[in-house]
Specification:
With 937 residues, the chain is of the alpha/beta class. Among the domains are: 10-266, Rossmann fold, CATH 3.40.50; 322-524, Ribonuclease H-like superfamily/Ribonuclease H (Nucleotidyltransferase, domain 5); 549-697, Up-down Bundle (Taq DNA Polymerase, Chain T, domain 4). Helices cover 47% and strands 11% of the residues. The strands form 6 sheets. It has a 6-stranded mixed β-sheet with strand order 3-2-1-4-5-6. Strand 21 and strand 22 form a beta hairpin. Helix 2 (40-55) runs parallel beside helix 4. It starts with 9 loop residues before the first strand and ends with a helix. The protein binds a DNA duplex (9 and 16 nucleotides) through helix 24, helix 26, strand 16, helix 31 and helix 32.
DNA sequence: ACGCTCACG
DNA sequence: GACGTACGTGAGCGTA
């Protein structure tokens, strides 16, 4: 049947996304045998399409058919309401690569495949259904999405393909309590939590239908809201009238979308058997390929049965060629790249900026790569010359896109939940793009993939990874930027060089991703990567961008006070030493004390000499020496002040951001091998607290006017984890009973009843407890406690006797590390211990590190999980998370909401191990609050 | 660039 | 039997 669509014609419209999701959830996670590509949803999709083709015979068969897909995440509905669909969960990791394949499948079946930027599939379906109806034909929408039910009637029906049930006007009435023409009114009132349509609070479908049926339609209802008898209902409708009208706009489908095709283009076509079978064979669908071949009377193509070797190099064998990279200078060229990105479903991205600090750096350009060797650079604000020419202008270089135009085009892609953005150290790029209003998601990060697999084995910077995995040395940045005083920023780098350098970074990143991603599964660290590494990126980006307010005047006053004290100390020091010298020089101190003054330690010996041959003058040495002379104590005091002044009160002032008045640290996620974060520029994880003088520096970390700082820290988390992992009944019981753990240890070891415990015995036990966590040795404990080595060894022996599980844990852990080359945390994080088999002292180091890593690492995992869950948990509180200090989280909260924040955040932290790891000990969190960090802690 | 020292958990 | 040792970090300074 052909001719213009009209009476007697029957159009089938398949809701592509709904089909894919159903297929995905209905089937186990199948993968392609040869390379492990996830393929379950594609398989289900193809089977459903084929079943439809097979079933569609007889008088009711469609004459026209199309599969309609969503395109992009940003639609006109987001312009009306920016929270539209904001509750949507991210697309599952193994589904994303299957989306483009389902489009290919549709084409292979020779079925029209349609989508339209800026509109949802539902709008296209609405438009086509209207056209079919107006032309006098019939239309069946294959979907069970209730949002489409407003279209039913007058020749338009829905078909639930899974249940094989048709939904007509009566079916809609069953579901909504109204007929299709009033469905949007009911939806506007009831709202939709899945799409985040607000609706009227407290009103569901039942009540909504009741009201609409009583008043006729929504407008009449809102107009006559005063007449409603129930006071609560009346008030809700009056108060939220605007929100309800907005909700109706959101749920009302647009049946006038501009389409570049007509119904006639959708006429049913016979598939090309060669093309279809080739596609099915490529997917390695054996059964389906056979069935299709039989039905079409064609030869069954062969499907290779040999899976690729798991370790075979996966990355395409494309040589690096910097001449092949493209400079993107206009919208048309960029459009071409965006098409390629949508085709692939992923893109590697790298941002170039004017500096390394994301808070002060400006975006200079963006590079993209979609397949190995195919990369581009979009320069945005490069200067026409290097800027070192006195007469040179700061004009922009030719051939660059307008910044806003470019970002406007990129934003929908970078925020599209179906397009995966791949980067190396994505926290940097996420922060840079956040500065220009782009919330990039979802992401993958090659640095974190490497870290999840190989923590402890090697670094995870791009240069190191490229050398190691791609056997390729990236173009070094140094020659482009220069160094020292004549260094230039990237916007001054000539475009020709910039394109090569920047595009290569994206190319390398994409290749690393292709290589490292499949290895995650093999190394069994996919869970670690997906639950402990990647989700931390946006959380840390937000914390770093928030920063913490630091009061410059407080620091400045402290600096001055320190200067004065140090000047006084210097006079005393020079008097005692008999001459002037540089007090900051350990070498000169050693010469004065041990050569010129010939001082000896209390045991009559001299201290050790360091690698450079100078006397060791560390605090422990000077502390001992202080018992025989006054000078060492003065030097210790001077050093403490020098440290506080130079590292804290002076240096911190230089880190106060000019625009925000706050200090913004940067956390490295893949720095510490154990899974701990590290804080840099500045390090806010080592702000003084142990000495009273140093502790006062925390007074300079303040809450904003009208706000409070709240600190929550895990109590003894590492010892709790040790008690669990090593399975020590006495320790577990002590934590269950909230008994002072160090006192308990002392009581067990030294046979002192708890009521008779003295601070000194407790102090020794505390040192032993910490020693255990660090891989205790008699020597180390002796030095720490300043007791003879034999005595320390005696303590350790008694400890092991009392808690034999500890020794077992230590021995087992060392044996595991020797056998596997790594140890693991309770959450599966791997920490490699390559030196464990070494000879000499290095083996001792490695053994102690191996003993410590599962404990420190598990604690790190716990707080990571808490941090990842925190933003959602506190999203309705006027609070934000600012800092992490290993076992502590610091928040800033509006005054009045402190207690609510504490109870909410505490719960998240105390339950952070659940549900994947059950602990025999509870986790306990202490809380404090105040106008500055000293008070809050 | 490297070692020393010292701040934190 | 000798050797050197508590675990994990980052920053500032002096010295080469």
């Amino acid at each position: 049947m052909s001719g213009t669509f009209g009476k007697g014609h029957h159009l089938h419209l398949i809701d592509g996304s709904a089909f894919i999701f159903r297929a995905y959830h209905a089937l186990p996670p199948l993968t392609r045998k040869s390379d492990g590509l996830p393929i379950g949803a594609v398989s289900g999709f193809c089977n459903m399409i084929f079943k439809m083709v097979e079933d569609n015979t007889g008088p009711d068969a469609p004459t026209h058919v199309a599969v309609i897909f969503d395109k992009g995440s940003h639609t006109f509905r987001n312009d009306m309401y920016d929270l539209y669909k904001a509750n949507r969960e991210a697309m599952p990791e193994d589904l994303r690569p299957q989306i483009p394949l389902t489009r290919q499948a549709t084409e292979a079946f020779n079925i029209a495949c349609k989508e339209l930027e800026g509109f949802e599939a539902d709008d296209i379906i609405a438009t086509l259904a209207r056209q079919a109806r107006e032309a006098g034909g019939r239309c069946t929408i294959i979907s069970s999405d209730k949002d489409l039910m407003q279209l039913v009637g007058d020749g338009v029906e829905m078909l639930d393909a899974m249940k094989n049930t048709r939904i007509d006007r009566d079916g809609v009435f069953d579901k909504f309590g109204v007929y299709p023409d009033r469905v949007v009114d009911v939806q506007a009132l009831a709202g939709d939590s899945v799409d985040n349509v607000p609706g009227a609070p407290g009103i569901g479908i039942k009540t909504a239908a009741l009201l609409i049926n009583e008043y006729g339609d929504l407008d009449a209802l809102l107009e006559r809201a005063e007449e409603i008898k129930q006071p609560k209902r009346r008030q809700t409708l009056i108060e939220h009238a605007d929100q309800i009208r907005l909700s109706r706009k959101l749920v009302l489908l647009d049946d006038r979308t501009p389409l570049d095709f007509t119904l006639d283009d959708l006429e049913v076509r016979e598939p090309d058997s060669d093309k279809l079978l080739a596609f099915l064979a490529e997917m390695e669908f054996r059964t389906l390929t056979k069935r299709v071949a039989e039905k079409m009377g064609a030869e069954m193509p062969t499907i290779e049965d040999t899976p690729a070797l798991p370790d075979a190099p996966q990355v395409d064998d494309v040589p690096f060629d910097t001449d092949n990279y493209e400079q993107v200078g206009d919208a048309g060229t960029l459009e071409k790249w965006l098409d390629a990105i949508y085709e692939a479903g992923h893109v590697a991205i790298d941002t170039e900026t004017t500096g390394l600090n994301e808070m002060t750096a400006d975006l200079v350009g963006i590079s993209l790569a979609v397949e190995p060797g195919k990369a581009c650079y979009i320069p945005l604000i490069h200067k026409a010359n290097r800027g070192d020419d006195l007469f040179g202008s700061d004009d922009l270089a030719e051939g660059q896109m307008d910044l806003d135009t470019c970002l406007g085009m990129l934003k929908p892609v970078l925020e599209d939940p179906s397009i995966l953005k791949i980067g190396q150290n994505m926290k940097y790029d996420v922060k840079i793009l956040a500065q220009v209003g782009i919330a990039m998601a979802p992401i993958d990060d090659t640095m974190l993939m490497s870290y999840a697999q190989h923590a402890g084995l090697h670094g995870h910077g791009m240069d190191a990874l490229s050398e190691r995995y791609l056997d390729h040395t990236p173009i070094p940045i140094k020659p482009l930027l220069g160094s020292g005083k004549s260094a230039i920023t990237f916007d001054k780098v000539p475009l020709e060089d910039a394109v090569k350098y920047a595009a290569e970074d994206a190319d390398i990143t994409l290749r690393l991703w292709k290589l490292l991603k499949p290895q995650l599964h093999a190394a069994q660290v996919t869970k670690v990567y997906e639950t402990l590494e990647r989700p931390l990126v946006p959380v840390l980006a937000d914390m770093e961008r928030a920063g913490i307010k630091v009061d410059r005047d407080t620091l400045s006053r402290m600096s001055n006070a320190f200067s004065q004290k140090m000047a006084g100390l210097e006079d005393e020091i020079f008097g005692l030493a008999g001459r002037k010298f540089s007090v900051g020089s350990p070498k000169q101190i050693g010469e004065i004390l041990f050569d010129e003054m010939s001082l000896d330690l209390p045991d009559g010996k001299k201290p050790a000499k360091g690698k450079s041959g100078a006397w060791s003058t560390g605090a422990d040495v000077l502390e001992d020496l202080a018992t025989v002379h006054d000078l060492p104590r003065r030097i210790l005091d001077w050093r403490q002040l020098d440290k506080l002044k130079s590292t804290y009160t002076d240096a911190l002032q230089n880190h106060i951001n000019k625009d925000t008045g706050r200090v913004h640290t940067s956390y490295s996620i893949a720095g510490a091998s154990t899974g701990r974060l590290a804080s840099t520029d500045p390090n806010l994880q080592n702000i003084p607290i142990r000495s009273e003088e140093g502790r006062r520096i925390r007074e300079a970390f303040v809450a904003e006017e009208g706000k409070t700082l709240v600190a929550l820290d895990y109590s003894q988390i590492e010892l709790r984890i040790l008690a669990h992992i090593a399975d020590i009944p006495e320790l577990k019981q002590a934590f269950a009973d909230d008994i002072d753990i160090h006192a308990l240890t002392a009581s067990e070891m030294f046979n002192v009843p708890l009521p008779e415990m003295t601070p000194d015995i407790r102090r020794q036990a505390k040192a032993i407890n910490f020693g255990v966590i660090y891989g205790i040795s008699g020597f180390g404990l002796a030095r720490n406690l300043r007791i003879p080595r034999a005595e320390a060894q005696g303590f350790i022996d008694r400890y092991f006797e009392r808690f034999p599980g500890i020794r077992t844990y230590m021995d087992d852990t060392k044996a595991f590390a020797k056998k596997h080359g790594y140890v693991q945390t309770l959450f599966g994080r791997r920490i490699h211990t390559p030196e464990i088999g070494a000879k000499g002292p290095r083996a001792g180091f490695a053994a102690r590190a191996a003993i410590n890593a599962p404990i420190q690492g598990t604690a790190a995992d716990v707080i990571r999980r808490a941090m990842i869950r925190m933003p959602d948990a506190i999203r309705n509180l006027p609070a934000r998370m600012l800092l992490q200090v290993h076992d502590e989280l610091l928040f800033e909260v509006e005054q009045g909401a402190e207690e609510e924040l504490i109870s909410t955040a505490r719960k998240v932290m105390e339950d952070a191990n659940e549900p994947v790891v059950r602990l025999d000990v509870k986790l306990t969190v202490d809380a404090g609050q105040g106008s500055n960090w000293a008070e809050a802690h």
